[in-house]
Amino acid sequence: MKFTGVVVGGLLHAxxxxxxxxxxxxxxxxxLVSGPTVGTDLTWLEKYGPQSDMVFTGPLSFSHLEYARxxxxxxxxxxxxxxxxxxxxxxxxxxxxxxxPTGIRTGSRRQHAARAYTLSWGLDPYTQGTxxxxxxxxxxxxxxxxxxxxxxxxxxxxxLKRDVARNxxxxxxxxxxxxxxxxxxxxxITLGGDHTIVLPILxxxxxxxxxxxxxxxxxxxxxxxxxxxxxxxxxxxxHGSFFxxxxxxxxxxxxxxxxxxxxxxxxxxxxxxxxSVGFKVISTDDLDDIGISEVIxxxxxxxxxxxxxxxxxxDVIDPGLAPAxxxxxxxxxxxxxxxxxxxxxxxxxxxxxxxxxxxPAYDHADVTSIAAADIVHDFLSMxxxxxxxxxxxxxxxxxxxx
Length: 402
Fold this sequence. Notes:
Layout: H1 5-20, H2 22-34, H3 44-48, E1 80-85, H4 100-107, E2 132-137, H5 145-160, E3 187-192, H6 198-209, E4 213-217, H7 242-248, E5 256-261, H8 268-277, E6 279-283, H9 286-303, E7 307-313, H10 335-343, E8 349-356, H11 367-383, H12 392-395
Parallel strand pairs: 1-2, 1-3, 3-8, 4-5, 4-7, 5-6, 7-8
């Protein structure tokens, strides 16, 4: 069967509106049934309907969400903001994560707010009465890290001060009780950037909540001491020392936890130092020994009822599944295992989250960017769930018909 260019265009449009605009679907179907007429004077709108963006077209925002330059437009309100921090000048190995926010957005193009229900969560995060928008990227100075870190802190604090959009007085994951002003503040999901971006984020969150706990998914500890001798105060701050600096500044409580650690170390002294920063370790191998359920239980027990920030380095996933990162380590968790653990954390008092260290230049077929974008979708569902989703068979048991 042969199709003319006009017919193919009509078919593609019908597929687009069927996926994203239910009200326009009937209009597109009528056109396909009757067949397009070539050579008429009808306008596009009259003949084919609205100019709908397809999953692979249109402006680049996370999951085709509303996009706004929130840092300059104070009229934009939201409950959860997606914010990019394109920073990679504090890495110790491969650079390239300044392209991470764009890469993650590219990986999200097949996702859409009109088609976001998943069997894993049993919900659609965009139909929970919570407004989510993409606030773009922070325009960071690529030549001066001190300026860039200040820009990140100012940007994050600017959005954190905004009023929430939700009209209800209560929300899922209620954290206003932990805020110094006892008000509800927006939550921000940050797209990195190298892991150093967490230091200015913790500085911003500290102004609102005081010291908080951190759940840290990573192959590396990131708590290493920069040493007593350093070329400059700024040189102390890297993507491997930022948690140590955060502890010096009193930004974290003593109830934080790592998940997925498998890096090489100097010895037990690194673990002793790590504990002094306020962390306990769940290693990559622990998942094999104790299982996913016990990993989840230990994380939840460690965090308790405290306000908590989740930071996920994409290198927690095995480089065979997520190769696009600056410091890959063999033997990591699978994407599915990480996603399963995240589901088990729903209901904790999250004040924000990030996904960092995605460096698209090292990717193949966007596999890392796609995984990162899907994890951000999990973050949204996690923040909107009062408790972990039950297993599917508990929600709706199979019936043995024999």
